[in-house]
Design a protein that fits this description.
Helices cover 2% and strands 45% of the residues. The chain contains one helix and eleven strands, in the order E-E-E-H-E-E-E-E-E-E-E-E. The model has no long low-confidence stretch (mean pLDDT 92).
């Protein structure tokens, strides 16, 4: 396995404003918040989502989304993430948002489902093959299942990667 294609998958580098990790965008909703804090798998920074009892089914889950990653159709990549849950009301996910050559969204697919109770960080991995017509992908970390009507708990992701094989 070769280098990580995801920018700042360990969340250690700050964005220009210092409010988010470089290469990532957090999105809070009325169902919960996306935060960046000292809570990673190696006691470093991690990307977290906390539920506030809101309705993710109606308003969406808090998420973290990576910057676009250049890919080649037919390329096999290893998608991985370390995830920890504490009192989460539904399973968090890691997905890929596929973009066409003009940046148009082609699809969003859930690739990894995290368990509700890890007792610490657990590494999730899956090999993915990039479909025809896809020029870039974004990794999407979602804190709560789309049908969750009363979000609760905290989900933290760290060491997110998309590795060449």
């Amino acid at each position: 396995i070769r280098g990580n294609k995801v920018e700042n998958g360990s969340f250690e580098q700050e964005s220009a404003g210092g409010s988010a990790p470089a290469g990532w965008t957090g999105s809070s909703t009325t169902a919960g918040s996306a935060t960046w804090s000292e809570s990673g798998s190696d006691e470093s920074k991690g990307a977290s989502m906390s539920g506030n009892g809101g309705n993710a089914a109606a308003h969406g889950s808090p998420t973290w989304t990576s910057a676009p990653v250049d890919v080649v159709p037919g390329e096999a990549l290893e998608l991985s993430a370390a995830v920890s849950t504490f009192g989460a009301s539904s399973a968090p996910t890691v997905g890929l948002l596929s973009l066409g050559p003009l940046g148009n969204v082609l699809s969003q697919v859930t690739m990894l489902n995290a368990p509700l109770s890890t007792g610490g960080f657990e590494t999730l991995e899956r090999t993915v093959t990039i479909p025809a017509g896809v020029a870039d992908v974004k990794v999407v970390l979602r804190g709560f299942a789309p049908g969750d009507v009363a979000t609760a708990g905290t989900v933290t992701f760290d060491d997110v990667g998309l590795f060449e094989q």
